[in-house]
Amino acid sequence: MDPLLEKATRQHTKEHNSRLLLRTIYEYGAISRADLARLTQLTRATVSDAVGELLERGLLEEVGHGTVGIGRTPILLSVVADARQVAAISVTNERVVGALVNLRGELRASVTLDVPLCDGDAILETIYAVADQLRRAAEYPLLGIGINTPGLIDVERGTVVRAVDFGWVDLPLRTLVQERCQLPVYLANDSHSLALAEYMFGQAQGTPDLIVVKVGNGIGAGIVLGDRLYTGEGNGAGEIGHLVVAEDGPLCKCGNRGCLETVASSAAILRQARELRLTQASALSAEPTLEELAHLAQAGDPLARAVIAEAGRYLGIALASLVSVLNIRRVLITGQVAPLGELLRKAVVTNLARRCLPALARATVVEVVALGPDAPLLGAAAPLLTFELGIERLSRP
Amino acid sequence: MDPLLEKATRQHTKEHNSRLLLRTIYEYGAISRADLARLTQLTRATVSDAVGELLERGLLEEVGHGTVGIGRTPILLSVVADARQVAAISVTNERVVGALVNLRGELRASVTLDVPLCDGDAILETIYAVADQLRRAAEYPLLGIGINTPGLIDVERGTVVRAVDFGWVDLPLRTLVQERCQLPVYLANDSHSLALAEYMFGQAQGTPDLIVVKVGNGIGAGIVLGDRLYTGEGNGAGEIGHLVVAEDGPLCKCGNRGCLETVASSAAILRQARELRLTQASALSAEPTLEELAHLAQAGDPLARAVIAEAGRYLGIALASLVSVLNIRRVLITGQVAPLGELLRKAVVTNLARRCLPALARATVVEVVALGPDAPLLGAAAPLLTFELGIERLSRP
């Protein structure tokens, strides 16, 4: 064999083993070298060498002794949660939020800057400002910067192909931030990020097949298939916000009519509430919030209930597409609509059953859940842990 | 290590290597032992032993010499196409078709038996009769029996969960045929089978991400993701036939209204043509066929064009779901509607663009293609080649 190729292969194998060991230790929390060798099927010598190097890099620590029946008690290894940090940035229509996230998904310093509504240039400047602040605040070595934004992202090229609300077309966001900050940068679509965050750190941790539908001003689905984030051939998987669900519905920014976002986004739901309020008796205020809507609906207000039922109907139509195409049995609906809770869930489930094969609908569990405010940041950080260190949650340890 | 476990592990490794070698030889057509060792990264000794055993089992043959610049010319190895046969059976509403398929997807003896329309018991008896005839006709050892049928299949349990047209509910088809024939039996959904056949033997051979939409009396999609057939958590992936695309449309057998099958199946298209014919001047006959419809439409008949455009509109709506969820860029539409060709394709593409994010639609190539009559049989045979011998097409050799 070509000696250069051989050297490259050896290096590749070494890195592969090191990542496998780190991931396994991460998953188990604390584990002995002997158990590591057994689980990874690597030799004791290979484990010992690789662990030595990971200890030297400060990624691992020895955390006291495990318990065994008789004989010597082995030393356990654990990942040092704060060994590295990620500068995680989440971009929405209203603000840019950033935080330092450690290897266990715990947030350290955080920054929030508001942005002028839908001004693409201003949003870019704000991303720079947040990145700069996080770099200054970092107490441990930074793995890099993870950014999630709405829109169609080309993960490989690191560009935002199109973010309708921001007027971004083919924006080379990764290169821009990378050149400024001299750190690895990973981009992710906001819905994809949320699914990854839920799978790695959230209540659906380790669910191998999972759909997370984010409903805010935009709507999109993140899809985990067989323990991997599924992003599609052009990173457009789960772009259901522009699936047409209302015949001759409102005109959408994308140019089509009746897209899901025009009738079931948080803005669309509140617009619908304001419009109905003009013609129908209701305790609803002139500028209602989703929380108020939820509160009134629970108290029996017919207008509030009708608005939620209508949004649920459209989301049910979109869910029928997801379920008919993917046959994934666990669906979380989250985002700004989370307060609409059980009323929304019921409307979605009723309409899902009417819009796809009943057997598929019956086999699907739909939940409406509030994700923690950290979820978008955890989703932004997750690709750095995966690609820079090889850490990803395994569903079946 | 436990000696039993060690023995089992060695046996498992040996089988794994043997399947890897067979698959590689299959993919390359003819290849030397040295190249095999290089490609699979197995030792020369391991390759030599495993190849010896495969030669003994009659699965391989030595096919003369390759060419090298200087020195000894190596002997090449090739898979014996007729070393094994599969009894492939394809079930449709009208008939049960069977054939013996060899390892290269070539058909040998074939059998066709018509069945009484939509009589589940009679269809089962006809499957038995076809299986018996194929077993008698087999000239080489049978790997087993592959059956594809419409409906929701539980591949693991080997049951037809539900086939609406046949009245089958939880039918243990695999066990029934296995007990009768004493051979391994694999079931597959008909659309899934077609996608697999296209990927393994067809014009989309080796396309790693692919959607094949079958439009006949039933409608379903088969999905290949990353070189693997994707079947979903309950084998219901691609069940778009019951996705509702027509608000308040015709009542479907599944209990819902306006399912894709009620407005775009071959039967629905012909029904629509017959109905329009009563109110509109057209050269269309009283009992039109899809071929006649295609022929008239090409000649400019407005009724025929309108019927095709309408079917294309509904298929475009369903395609928007597939594309928004999966972002797969190559879609084949096939089945009984294939003769509608370019007129159907244009209607589908126009409506796809109106019903999902325009950037996703633009990136998607839609073709309307006639698959050979053998495609369903090849799809039925494919799981046997994969699971019994480890042969599957690789997209990147």
TrEMBL record, chains A, B:
GO terms for molecular function: DNA-binding transcription factor activity. Pfam families: MarR_2, ROK. It comes from the Bacteria. Residues 21-65 form the HTH marR-type domain. Belongs to the ROK (NagC/XylR) family. This is HTH marR-type domain-containing protein. The lineage of its organism: Bacteria, Bacillati, Chloroflexota, Chloroflexia, Chloroflexales.
